[in-house]
Amino acid sequence: MAEGTIYALSSSGGRAGVAVFRLSGDGCRLAWERLTGREVPEPRMMTRVRVRDGSDVIDEGLGVFFPKPRSFTGEDVVEFHVHGGRAIVQGLLGALAKSPGLRPAEAGEFTRRAFENGKMDLTEAEAVIDLIDADTETQRRQALRQKDGEFGKACERWRVTAIRVLGLVEAAIDFSDEGLGDGLVEEARKVAVDLRLEIDDHLRRGERGRKIREGFYVAIVGEPNVGKSSLLNRLAGRDAAIVSETAGTTRDVIEVRMALGGYAVTLADTAGLREGAEAIEEEGIRRAKAAADRADLRLEVLDARDEDLWQNRAGVGNGSIAIANKADLIDEGGWSGKHPTVLPISAKTGYGLDALENAIIGQIAGAWETRDDGVVWTRERHRLAMAAAVDGIGRFLRLDEEDLAAEEIRRCVRELGKIVGKVDVEDVLDMIFREFCIGK
Ligand code: GDP
Q1: Which residues pair with 53 in a beta bridge?
Q2: Atom of ligand 1 nearest to the CA of 248
Q3: What are the pLDDT digits (tens) for 287-329?
Q4: Taking CA 299 as the corner, what is the angle to CA 259 and CA 373, rounded to the nearest 5 degrees?
Q5: Alpha carbon of 193 to those of 190, 197, 198: distances in Å?
Q6: Cβ–Cβ < 8 Å for 254, 268
């Protein structure tokens, strides 16, 4: 459990119009009195205050008091909004450090206390971090939905269902002598089959949550010198890759993160995929292949002057876009009537870049954004726990020995509990047992 009363500058450091300090813990009232010379005001009412260090007034600002439990952390919370000047911030930090019983908060400690005091589950706490880190529109919207507990509630529902299965199996064990066991096991298996289907479905369809949070990986691939680095620079709008006249200078994978059409995208420029390269290039080529393999989308860059590529380009479908770069070097309209799925662009002049960006956004939206915007998961730990829960149910369904089968469901309950941060099973089991009215 959390110890002591903590404080922190909650707005970002540096010169600013306003700086917000936050305090949480039982020492809040006393700290307020010490720092303002007055008693705490009406709960949740902004009040004008003079914050002081002893007799020295540091600044005049606003203060608000949230008595427990109706606060962000569930503890007494105080906020001071003062002018965001460096001397004021330093002065107030100094005064707080001198206040008895107060200590600086550790990273994430306010949110951690909110979790420990039952104000939010783990997925909601993660969403607070994601909301603060969100760079794009889709990330922000997704984090907000997770913060509303959308994913956490789904996990909790599955967990309760798994506990019900466990209850049925345990009851079956208890009542096997009275010949009631079989019906209960049957029922447990039916519920378990549905539960497995639901979690498994979610596991597969909810992956776009992680993609949106981490960013879509787009790899630029193609022969050396077709203009991959130039294209990356164009798209990134800044010099992030080495552009050179000699073939094979991009020996590693260069990654640039950017926001494209509301999505976070990591654009990777790979070494020219070329046979018979020198040894030093081979490692680059190996990495390029790996990057292309794990990419959500590949931009296959060709040279517009290469007639063969224009003619033979076929089968570009989901997961890749074929691009004919250096379109400025062939006659205007030289590509009309040629392969319709190849997109002509010029990294040099910027021709066709809008169309390319739209094609990238379209592919991402088409592949990952289903019309039903159901609940998504966002982290590897969510995936691992759900996969373990699905495995547990699978083993449960295969086992005939009820004691062992019950253990698998217990594991499933624990895994689902891990997602939201609940590991106690027994208390809920008690409740479920009572509901059965078997009353032993
Ligand atoms: P990479 O090896 O595929 O990464 O190719 P680079 O981006 O290094 O480009 C190779 C050469 O082609 C450089 O001299 C670029 O200036 C040139 N280049 C790239 N894109 C274009 C383009 O659209 N038009 C023309 N004319 N030259 C280009």
Answers
A1: 56
A2: 2
A3: 777 777 889 999 999 898 887 766 665 545 568 898 999 989 8
A4: 50
A5: 5, 6, 9
A6: yes
